Amino acid sequence: MNDIFKALADPTRRKILKMLREGDLSAGEIADAFYISKPSISHHLNLLKQAGLVLSEKQGQNVYYSLNTTIFQEVMQWFFEFMERGESDENQ
C-alpha cells in the first residue's frame, strides 16, 4: 500500500493515470503530453507499474500502458474500511 500512496503523491503520475482513464496509451503518447524528458516519463511509468497501478504490454516496438482497475478497487476497499473503523471509533 505504501508504494501506491507514494505513486499517487506525484502530480505527474496522477496526470498519467487520468490520461489512462480514457484508454490505453503508448509510452510515446504519454511522453508527448509532458514537457519533461522521456527518461523521466519512463521513471514515472515504472513507479506506477511497481505500485501495481498500471499494466504494460509490449506490442511490436511500442509499450502500451493501461490502468489496473483491480488495484484501484483494493485501494477503495481500504479507504472504506478505514472510514468504517473511524466511524465505529467515534461511536465508542
Summed up, what is this model?
By secondary structure, this protein is an alpha+beta fold. The protein has helices at residues 2-8, 11-21, 27-32, 38-50, 69-90, and strands at residues 25-26, 54-59, 62-67.
Helix content, binned percent: 55-70%
CATH topology: Arc Repressor Mutant, subunit A
Mean pLDDT: 90
Indicate the overall shape. elongated
**What portion of the residues fall into strands of 2 or more residues?**
15-25%
**Global Rg:** 16 Å
Instruction: Using the coordinates above, name the CATH class.
Output: Mainly Alpha
Distance between the first and last residues' Cα: 28 Å
Order of helices and strands: HHEHHEEH
The total number of structural domains is 1
Total count of helical runs of at least 4 residues: 5
Topology:
Blueprint: H1 2-8, H2 11-21, E1 25-26, H3 27-32, H4 38-50, E2 54-59, E3 62-67, H5 69-90
Antiparallel strand pairs: 1-3, 2-3
GO molecular function: DNA binding; DNA-binding transcription factor activity
Protein name: Transcriptional repressor SdpR
Keywords: DNA-binding, Transcription, Transcription regulation
